[in-house]
Each structure stands twice: as C-alpha cells, then as structure tokens.
Amino acid sequence: MFRDEIKQIGEAGINLFKAFWYISRGKINWDEVARQIVKTGFGSLFIVAITSSFIGLVLSLQLSIQLRQFGAEHFVGALISGTAIRELGPIISAVVVAGRVGTAVAAEIGSMRSSEQIDALIVFGIDPVKYLIVPRLLSSAIITPLLSTVATFLIIIAGMFLAKISVDLNYDVYLDAVRVVNTTHDVMVMLLKACIFGITIAIVATTAGLQVKGGAEAVGDATTKTVVWSYVLIFIFNYFLSSYFFRV
Amino acid sequence: MSLFLSLTIFLVLISLGFNMNNFDKKEPIVSFRDVCVSFNSTQILKDLSFDIYSGEIVTIAGPSGSGKSTILRLLGKLIYMDSGEININAQKLGMSFQRSALFNSMTIWKNVALALEETTNLSKKKINKKVQAALELVSLAHTEKMYPDELSGGMQKRISIARALVVSPEIILYDEPSTGLDPGTASKLEDDMIRLRDKTGVTSIVVTHDFDTIKKVSDRVLILYDGKIRWEGTKNEFLTDESPYPRSFRERTSIEDLLPPT
Questions:
Q1: Contact residues, chain A, for B114 at CB < 8 Å
Q2: Is the ipTM, as predicted for this complex, more than 0.90?
Q3: Is A119 on the interface with B (CB under 8 A)?
Q4: What is the rounded distance in angstroms from the CA atom of residue B153 to the CA atom of residue B98?
C-alpha cells in the first residue's frame, strides 16, 4: 500500500547521505552553487518581502487590539519579534522556497529525467547526486536562512510601524521590548531551522524530480509532490526543533 | 643447417596455426548470456544470448516493444538484469540517445566537454583539443558557441555522437539514430556512423527498426523479437534470407503476419 512512499523516503535518505559524502570530500561545484543562489534567491526575495511585511502588519494589528484591552500594548514588540525570530521567519522563507524554488527544481530535474539527460549523465560516469543535488542542496541551505533573516526583519519593522499607527506605540518602547526578549541563541536557532528546512526542500524536490517516469504529467506530479511533502515535513520538523530548542 | 631451417619453419607454422586458431575464436567485446529482464512482472528479455566483436557495426533490429532499448540501457548500466551474465571487455562506453539528451542550458562546447570536465583531471587546453576533434569528426566544429535549441534535430543528434566520442570509447551505443529525421539528414548521420567506425575503429551497437539504417550501416544484424534473438546474420544475409524475420523488414510488414500460425 505504502510501497512507493517507503521507496521515495529510502531514495531521499540515500540521496541525502551521498550529497553529504560529496560535500564532506569538498567535491562541490561552487560556480553552480552561486548560479543557483542567484537564479533562485533573488526571485524569492520579493515574495518573502511582501508576505512577511503583511504578516508583520496583521500580527501587529491583532496584538495591538488584544493587548490594549489589558493595557499591555508595550509588549507588542516582544511578542511580534519573539514569534518572528523563533517561528515565522524560518517558516515563511521555507514556504516560499518550497513553493517557488522546490517546484522549479523538481520540474527541471523531472524534465531532464524524461528527456534522457539524467541517463546521459549516468552513462558518462557522472553521478547525478554530485552534479545536480549537491549544488541545489547547498544553495537552498544558504538562501533559506538569508531569506529567513529578511523575513524576520521585515515582520518586526512592519509590526513596529503598525503599532505606532494603531495604538501610538513609541518606536523606542517597541525596540526595547525586541532587545529584551530575544537572545543570540534565538537568532542562531532561527538560522539553523531555516537551514534544515532548506536542505529538506532540496532533497524532497531533487528526489521527486529524479523519480519522474514518463512525460509532462509525471513532471507535474513531481512538483505537486514536492510542495505537499515539503510543507508537511517543514511543519513537523518545525515543531520538534522548537520543542527541543525552546523548552520551558 | 637444413635441420635448423626445417625446425624454424615448423615452429613458425605452428605459431601461425595458433594465431589463426585464436583469430577464429577471438574474444567478444560484448557478451550476453541467458540475460533476463522484467518490469512490473512483464518479462522483456528472455534468456538473451549474443556476442559482439571489436570494430564491427552491429544492428539490433526489432519491432517496437521487443526490448531493443533495454539492451542498450543494460549496457549503459541504467537498469539491472534479473539474471544472466553480461561481459563487457571495454573500459569506456559512449551513448547517443534517441532524443539527443543535450543540456539546453549549456553551449555545444560545454555539452561535449562535460564528461571530460567531470570525470578526468585533464587541463582545459587538452579538453578543448579533444572537444574540437570530436566536433570535427561530425563536421560541426563551427557550432561550439551555439546552444542546442539553435540547432536542427539532425545536428543535435550529431552533437550527441560527438559527446559520446569525446571520451574515446571502445564501444558506442546508438539508440534509434534516424528516428525523427528526414531521409536526407538520416542518411548523412548514417554516413557519419560508418566514417567514425572506419576512422576510430570504435565498436558500434545500433538499435533501430528502420530498414534503411539497417541496410546502410550494418556489418551484422541481430533481430530481436519477443525478448529473444530470433535471427542473426550478415548484412547480405539480411537482404536475401527468406526467413520471416529479415523478410518482415524488407517487405515492411509485421513479423506476426509472416510467422506460421501457432
């Protein structure tokens, strides 16, 4: 019943292991990594900026209204920044990367599979894991934390402006709360989470692409599979990482 | 003195005899023995056995779905057999794919150079020299800065052959080389295949169902039907034998129509 799913998980695990083996031996095509970062990172930046700014606005709006009832509006900065750094920043960036970059990678590799380009690599003795997965895994592991940093920053800034407009909260009060609540540990965990999400998306997308059998329909299925599995895994991993790093 | 001379002549004759004997029984470069392959419980190849010798152009012909491409995929290590034995007495193998399989994001130079860049430690200068030589062999040296999309289907197939040749393979595999090409372009490609063998001595294994290709390029023809080699012979035998298998190609009819009812 779950034979295909188990096979996919097994292949994803093998691909991840092989990719780390190549990385540990320094067999990395940095030119291709840079090309992937430029190709995927800049395009995602705009979407991350828009989505995170509006999430910051709506979060600030709701928190300001709720906290004002208790006379606690000066906690808005603390709550927004805490949530943004610990949860929303990595999640938003991962969702954007999965939706925009993951699907593109799955479609690209899936098309290469159906047009025999992957077979050509294998016949010529080039391991697709080294040639295709390693650069995409590294670029995803680099751009997701960078986008997460941008997302977190914009959520906090957007929240600050809206708190000023909605409850007339002073910028200094807001920023003081941000400084008091968050630590370097929180920022490091944010970067680590985003990095793990980036690796997850890259492995899911490349494995789905490599498993394509057939034509356009199979490529479409690979992109759908990438989004679904990436989101499911990101949210599951997020819970376990948060519960491990932010224990009461 | 005469005794010494007689002894020498005797030894020379014996050694020649040995060599002739070895020549008759020369080792195959590719050997399949009782190879079975199945996909999803459908058996594609059934106890398949054949030999291919160095320097020859062998065509594996057969109707669609007979398992021709499966043989190439086995040789290219793209799939694995269920049982049997495959011996390949060659270090390097090149393959020209049915749909060319060129990388659209790379220039022609990069496409041809890729295998050398990724699998050898050759300097850029040496790689460039080999790429130029491979492109010249298919008469397309002027395309090195172009992208695959800018070339016709026939040119893409010839670039695919140059890419296979650049690693100096002992065996080159052609998967349906003339499929999708007009007769003139297909004929030019077939001329290239013969010229490359004559120039480099590369063993060529061609998978096709195209009668014109079989007729033009083959030294030897193997006809695959229902997962087994059903007929084997030289090109002349293929063109004259009255067995239903070669006849089906000459008369452009299906093998089933010529086989006696079972």
A1: 124, 126
A2: no
A3: yes
A4: 11
